[in-house]
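pipeline: protein-struct stage 2 | run 1193 | YkgJ family cysteine cluster protein
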Amino acid sequence: MECRLGCGACCVAPSISSLKKAADVRCEYLNEQNLCSIFGKPERPKVCSDFKADKETCGSSNEQAMANLIYLEAVT
C-alpha cells in the first residue's frame, strides 16, 4: 500500500521516544500539508523510516488510520 500523502496519522497518534513526542501530539516536523519536513534526511528517526503503510493499520481513510494508530498506541 502506498502512503496517503497528507494523512499524517503516523506523525500524530503514536509516541516517538527519540523525538520526545508524546502520543496524540503533532510531530514538530509535520508541516501544514501533513508531510514530514525531514523525510529522507538522516535526522529522521529510524522508527519513522521503518514504518510502512498497510491496509490493516491505515485503513481506507485518514480518520480510520488515526483511530487505528491511537488504538495500537493504547494497547502497546
